[in-house]
Write a structure and sequence with these properties.
Distance between the termini: 37 Å
Mean pLDDT: 82
Structural class: alpha+beta
Low-confidence stretches: 1-63, 553-563
Shape: flat
Number of helices: 21
Number of strands: 31
Strand content: 15-25%
Number of domains: 4
Amino acid sequence: MVSTRSKKLAQPARRRTTLEVVIPIRRNRVRFQSPSPQQSTPRANTPAQPASPIVPVTDTRPAHVRLISILQPEGRATLFEHTIGKTTDVDKWEIAMSPAEYQARYNHTIALVQLVSHIPSKKPAIAEHTNGEWMLLASSVHQIWVQAQFKLPFIKEIKRYQVVQPGKNPIQPILGRVLVPVYRFTQCLIKAGCNTLWIKAYGQKLPLTKHRVTNEPAQSNHLFAKYNSWDIGKSFDSPFIWLFAPAIPKKSIIQMFPMVIPASNDFGSLNLTFRYQSRDFFVKVYARLVHLIKSFNSQMGHAIPKTLFGLRNQGKQALEMIASLRAADPKEITGFRIEVTVQAPTLSLAVKIVEATPFFNLQFWLDPQSHVPELQHLRLIAKICTEDSLIRNASAMHALATTQGILSGDNRTKPSSRAVQGLTDVLAALGWCSGLRRPTQSSDPKAWWVSQPGQTTQIGVLEKLSNKFKTVAQQLEFIKLFRTKSRFGYIPCQQAPADSTHRYQLCDNKNLRVRCGKKECKHQLKAGELMKWLAQLTTDGHFDMSYIGIQGNNTESSQSEITKSRKVTIGPITVKLVPARFQVPHRDTLVQLATTPRLFRTQFVDGDGNCMFAAFANAFGGAANTHKTMRREAIKWARQNQDFLAPFIPEEFDGSVNRYLQEMAKLKVYGDNLMLEALCRAFEVSVAVLNVAPGTGEMAWTLVGENTGTGRLGLYLGGEHYENLVMMGDVYSL
């Protein structure tokens, strides 16, 4: 049996930081002041012209990306003072309108629409609420969608006046493009029996002021007006780029788009879907940097490349984007934006709904508990970085991808998954995450840009080979040695390295060029490309560098024993902890403890008296498990085993098991070690509670439940509050 609960314990003190936020009066811009001996180079006020040709930046100083929560109070106050919200605007709307209403609004001699021939990949919002397919029929300054059933009747009517050819696909209006006057367009639709147009306008960011919005855009009496959708937004000016992450990851509610990786540690833009005041809301919180990137190249990364030519082309676009960002006005790079999507028949009602929420209040997202407690699960954490840090981070990632050969190869070949992932990461590094493919986790110890323990990276091997074999004659000697000592016994062709019939042969000794000997292939590599390929094969363990007098490519790469071990010794007790069975929150929301191997404690368990049961529910796992179910099961087991409990009932209950259980059954009543023992026995698990002594920080294990031999659930007890314990392997961050 275990002892009673310990007295109140102090929480670990936060590590002090030297980071400050300073406001230079001259430029009126907030900047970091860091103790780093290398300071960022000041940017000119006048945008510089992009260099030509573009040269990759090789500045490898660490990018400054900082949590705002670690700023000193004065610096944080200054940061918020210089983060200013602009006028609320409407960015996008999707509204229903009759052809007659459209004609009444746009009936002018020079008013034209263009019939389109392409099929968009995204469906309009109205498609979720109606039967049948919807088709993009025409565009003007907005898109005009109709139900596909009216395609052929409309084409029949329009052919009376103009030459058009119907599209081959049922939702492709026509072949080619045709301009049609609005009057003729609407009349043909009316004759075809169409009574609904779905108008989609986006990207306008129209300020919601009386002199800008002079009349109501929507036709409020339309049958489908209740499905009208509006994006109401607010941009925030700031001297920094803002990046966000959820305090508690919930994939069903929050979709993440990591940016500025790996410096940001996967912070970026977020999409949140939730209900509030009986309404569905969709909220986007993102860096305004996205708008600037779109203004330079709206098609960058829009599709996964199918050939290495396409992959290299996107890599080139990324490099051009870095140069464009370097020349851009910093005010266009920094800041962030919040957009709220809501359904309402009219714009005025949509604005009224959104203004009644706290969603445009930055402080709400950072601390929902203080504003709307019921939305505390939406709490966000934020980081800030400078435009210079963004550019250095993106430049370094592009340079690494280039050096490691990720963006190189034969134009005709299909890019490997590693190459596609590398391109995805390079785009995310400069702030672009399209969502087509998820970037590599920043803290992944096996990420392609990270040197693995006990393993030399390709860039390191290439550097060593280049330093040792500088002349053509020396490189020829290395090739001869590689052929005889490598695991292949030859140099495999880059196009089919697993096929022994694809072998490189020297075809030009003077310029050091090789060609695949297979007649159907004939793939060639020049000297530089050949050395990169040999460096890659060496990195992969096919050649031992000790043959050339160089140590360092041990291929037994794995995580260290400390990372793999789940045993933690504190004092005389060694505990083996089971892997986390719950969604581990972001690394920056955890508190690191002074243990080896490294332990962290969470900060998300509510301190409402239910914390022990809630922490146990998290540790035990299962989405359906809550503090209520855990308390109920513990009480149920205890009632069935009263003889076991009787000797340990606290004195305040005069030895009455029933009185004790009646009290423990109440919500918000602190659980004790007796209840924790009941939980362990009810669910047939064992628990290790890490207690931290007040003042001294001395730690000790308290073991509860019978050891099953498979490991214990880890809990943290600080004062009278329980949290969960997480190991370094669960955090996936070194």
